[in-house]
Amino acid sequence: MPAAISDAESNHHEEVAGLAYNEVADIFDVFAEELNTATGLVVDINYPDLMNVAESFAYDLARYRSFHEIKVPDRARRAAYMAKWIMRFRPVYLVGEVHELNESQKTRALILNEDFALYIASAFLDVDIEAELTDRMASILLYSFRYRSHSEDTFILYFAALCKI
Amino acid sequence: MYPSALLLLLVVLAGLLGGSCSAFYEVISLPSTTRIRIALRILESVIAAAVVPLFLSLIGNNEIGTLLSGDSSFDPKVQYIALKTFGFCLIAAISARRFLDTVSSRVFALERELKDAEKRIEKTEQKVDIINTAVNEPDESSSPLPEEVVVSGPLTEIDSKVLASLSGGLPLRSISGIARSTGAAPEEVDTSLTRLSDSGLATKIITDRGKRWMPTLAGRELATDVNLGPSSAPKSKG
Questions:
Q1: A134, B205: Cβ pair inside 8 Å?
Q2: Complex-level ipTM
């Protein structure tokens, strides 16, 4: 948390975090419905964790605003920060018991937050990831999200590439 | 005496006693005193004592209701509750300011908790609706549950590739994404998806991003078959 922030900065931070929270919550509702249709999985989101994601996202935006950097599209940075915190706090969870699922559902249930991070990135980037990525690239990306450690810089670079700048 | 009058008398008496006690502590520590200051302190204590019924309801104590609904003040049960309430009022009056701060903080916190609980209930009800819909009204065009597969001949090479593409990576795929993955033209993919859909191996949904495709359970099972090839036929069921 920033050591000393003015009231104006504090109010702005709360506003940014609140907007991010509402936006991600709305996107989650659509994501959950589509995931249920596609796989039969019923998922929900932990709202306190989501608030944590939104707050951290807002701090990232404020922190990097004051630095000179190469001109990266704003949407790529926003998508990268949001994906990073979703995978850190993992707010999405499965409703129900894993042992009741079939094999393909179990595999999908393991990567719920990775799926959601990619879904959110797609929304923030305004890029149709389902059209842009090959299966292999999507699998590599999801695997990498889950099992590899990445900084937001890695995500920024990749998402900037998806923006075709 | 009516129980309600008894309660009112006890509240005021506790307030006066507690306020006097509180004022006494202050008086003896000061070089000089003012009558107004003492009176205000006593008034604060009377107010704190009057808030005791609210405090008791917040902590789940509803005995005051029993007291007020009693027929007579001489009922031992009524007297017992009255004495307990008097004790609460006395404590509240002695520590008036701190008591009032505590109760007001608790009331505001309770309001926030109620709002959060209402939001969570609304979300839970929506999730229950989704579960009920999935259990009671399976969508025939998009359900991943086992379906009857119509045997319409062996899968072609392109159909096999498209089905494999559908079953890997993301939960939903677009025609252009499948075309990019398989190297086939979008028109070929579109035709293949129609065949797969007719065979019960794939299905489409409409999203805000446009048409999206996904494998059915039968299609996903077939796609994971290691012997999948151009001459493989879909398994018929039923």
A1: no
A2: 0.80
